[in-house]
Design brief:
The complex is a heterodimer of chains A (113) and B (115).
Chain A: E1 5-7, E2 10-13, E3 19-24, E4 31-38, E5 42-50, E6 53-57, E7 64-68, E8 74-78, E9 87-94, E10 103-104, E11 108-112
Parallel strand pairs in A: 2-11
Antiparallel strand pairs in A: 1-3, 3-8, 4-5, 4-9, 5-6, 7-8, 9-10, 9-11
Chain B: E1 3-6, E2 10-14, E3 19-21, E4 23-26, E5 33-38, E6 44-50, E7 56-58, E8 64-68, E9 73-78, E10 87-97, E11 100-105, E12 109-114
Parallel strand pairs in B: 2-12
Antiparallel strand pairs in B: 1-4, 3-9, 5-6, 5-10, 7-8, 8-9, 10-11, 10-12
The chains are: A mainly beta (113), B mainly beta (115).
């Protein structure tokens, strides 16, 4: 158990809908990272927050947004969902802002029908 | 620019034989380097981390990796494969890209262990 909690584990929704994925980092970790993993794109970095502030952006679509709250949990919001958004979404956390070991959650599997 | 290349997308070995998963990196200085493992339908788990303290790094489950600056390589090895080693393995380097700090993931190597 990595100590990183992601909810829900599975999510099934329809095209055009909006969903929110939640991540609770390990106790004491200030950085939260979001990744998308699909068969055709592999593992893609989406966005990173450190102590409530956005630190780095990767291949995150404009339809996607994220935030990190004062209690350090993070949410990833996906809107106007398309079939191609179906993927595993991982959250990871680390103590430092960069360069440190990342601890990954078990992921949320999103299926867009 | 910093990058990481995993030279094999798939590797098959027989149970009990050695494992070699290859990773080359590109960096203007000695970096930190990580190997992560992902079992089917699971999150990524750290196998080991190189931080310049020692070139041979021992990780969990009998894996180890050797940092070779002259070859810019960080290959992952295990003397004897076990069926439970079947998984996908990622080589990762922290990097500065366009003014921001990110983790660069290799494309992964899927290890198959044959009985």
């Amino acid at each position: 158990d990595s100590g990183v909690t992601q909810t829900p584990k599975h999510l099934i929704t329809a095209t055009g809908q909006r969903v929110t994925l939640r991540c609770s980092p390990r106790s004491g970790d200030l950085s939260v990272y979001w990744y998308q993993q699909s068969l055709d794109q592999g593992l893609q970095f989406l966005i990173q927050y450190y102590n409530g502030e956005e630190r780095a952006k990767g291949n995150i679509l404009e339809r996607f947004s994220a935030q990190q709250f004062p209690d350090l949990h993070s949410e990833l919001n996906l809107s106007s969902l398309e079939l191609g958004d179906s993927a595993l979404y991982f959250c990871a956390s680390s103590v430092a802002e960069w360069g440190d070991i990342q601890y990954f959650g078990a992921g949320t599997r999103l299926s867009v029908l | 620019a910093q990058s990481v290349t995993q030279l094999d997308s798939h590797v098959s070995v027989s149970e009990g034989t050695p494992v070699l998963l290859r990773c080359n990196y590109s960096s203007s200085y000695s970096p930190s380097l990580f190997w992560y493992v992902q079992h089917p339908n699971k999150g990524l788990q750290l196998l080991l981390k190189y931080t310049s303290a020692a070139t041979l790094v021992k990780g969990i489950n009998g894996f180890e990796a050797e940092f070779k600056k002259s070859e810019t390589s960080f290959h992952l090895t295990k003397p004897s494969a076990h069926m439970s080693d079947a998984a996908e393995y990622f080589c990762v380097v922290p990097a500065r890209v366009a003014g921001t700090y990110k983790y660069i993931f290799g494309t992964g190597t899927r290890l198959k262990v044959l009985a």
